[in-house]
Design a protein that fits this description.
The structure is a single chain. With 191 residues, this protein is mainly alpha-helical. The protein has nine helices and no strands. The protein has helices spanning 2-15, 18-30, 40-51, 53-60, 64-72, 117-129, 136-143, 147-156, 168-190. α3 (40-51) packs across α4 and α7 crosses α8. The mean pLDDT is 80. Residues 167-191 are annotated as: Disordered. Residues 167-177 have a biased composition (Basic and acidic residues).
Length: 191
Amino acid sequence: MGSTIGKITRRSVKNWNVENRAHKVIEKHKDKPIAAPRHQSSKENNRLAEIDQEFTKSSIEKNENLHQMLHGLVVEPEKMPEITAAKPGLPQDRRRHTDPEFGFIAPVKVREGKCTLKQAVQFISLHSTDPVKHSAESIAKEYKLDENVVRNILLYFRALDLYVPEDDSKSKDENQLKKLNSKNSKLLENK
């Protein structure tokens, strides 16, 4: 209900004295609009054009002398270097690259006090093979690392070792094969 009353009042205010307002707008536009003031440089050009009529004619007409001089000018784009602008984000090298050893590209330069994953795996495996020769102190000096950090690395990380079972398992497998063969031979004899 309230929205309809609002619409009616708005419509009546909009339409009030419409004719008089329209006539006022038309009267304003009957007079010619005044041009905006010109810039000082354009005023000077217009003044020169009014004074020298030949200048305006010569600027419009074709000057044969200048035109002949342009014919002598040769632009050879072949001598210009070729511009190869690559779109950003697109790979230029489309060859397939091998995956890095540890799944990411190792840094070329390592800061002092830091080591790469490859170096860490290397000194962990060296320590596991000979802990006396490759102690935490010697590793810390060699790689310029903090000795406590190296001790913690050697304590909590180990190189993967391959466990190969002893030859007893082969003999067990052979015994099982013999048993199966003997059972198969007995079954064949019974048939």
